[in-house]
Amino acid sequence: MSGGQQQHTAVCRALFQGGASKGVHRYWEMSRYQPLTGVLAIAIPYAGICAKVYAEILEEAQPDALKALPRGTSSISTFFFVRLPDSWVHIKNYTGYRFECGLCSGAVLGFVGLPTLGYYLETAFNEGNYSEVSGLLTIFYILIATLKYWLRLKLLWLYLLIAPFLLSGTSDIQLTNILRFLSEDIVPMPLRTGNLTNPETWSHLGDWLGMLLTDQALPGIIATILLTQIALVSTAFLALALFPLISKKFLGRFGRTIGHLVLVVIRSTPEFILVYVFLQFWGVIHAAGNHSSVAA
Q1: Whether pTM exceeds 0.70
Q2: What is the mean pLDDT of the chain?
Q3: Is 194 within the bounds of a domain?
Q4: Residues 112/24, Cβ–Cβ less than 8 Å
Q5: DSSP class of residue 269?
Q6: Which of 64, 107, 109, 167 has the fewest beta carbons closer than 10 A?
Q7: Given a cut of 50, is residue 19 above it in pLDDT?
Q8: Closest CA to 106 of 122, 123, 119
Q9: What mean pLDDT is predicted for residues 24-43?
Q10: How far apart are CA 37 and CA 35, in angstroms?
């Protein structure tokens, strides 16, 4: 392996270990033995997202059917026989999309120790076994591309039935970890180490918050807003350029099939893999070296 390739591999390893292992080291240690933590890490935010989107879908449905209901119709009957059937197609399509996102999130969770596809990707990546990486990615792309063939409502009960048996590991809840997190880990450092009845403790808290705001929060917020705006504009241009790949107005059936495969590869490739690919094109910049020093 050449010196440039070794440097790129070292940077990617630093991104894996510094960005993932150090940032979520306690989660990593727990998720090795408790896969349920990975399930909850996906289920909890997805529940909030789906609840919001489902509510918006129901609110945007046409109210004509509601106006035709007789007076005294119960809310439950209205929901199941009027509102839900009217919005079912949109809810089903969004649920399928969110499931695809869940597959990608599950793969990424493998980078912090869960035995998902991402775990084996991370192992092959760190060992420099890029042929195995490409093989695993191909399997993942096929999984996403064939989603509509095996994700069927009639099979959902079967998946739910066998899933708990395939989820290895224990699901014991460590109460001491929860209490330590609530009573120590999230408490600001000046309050954790000082006397709450001492005015100097609160003065130190103000200084600490000011330092946190000026040195980290404000620069981070500004950088995040700028990055998000640039990413959204780039997304708009890329979406405008790529949507013809699956549009009947531009391509035939064969062309749309190829376009679908291209979009599957684009949207399903884990971010860490994309980082490595971009490093191959543009090389290592000074900021990436900082990741390497942090990981050390």
Answers
A1: no
A2: 78
A3: no
A4: yes
A5: S
A6: 64
A7: no
A8: 119
A9: 60
A10: 5
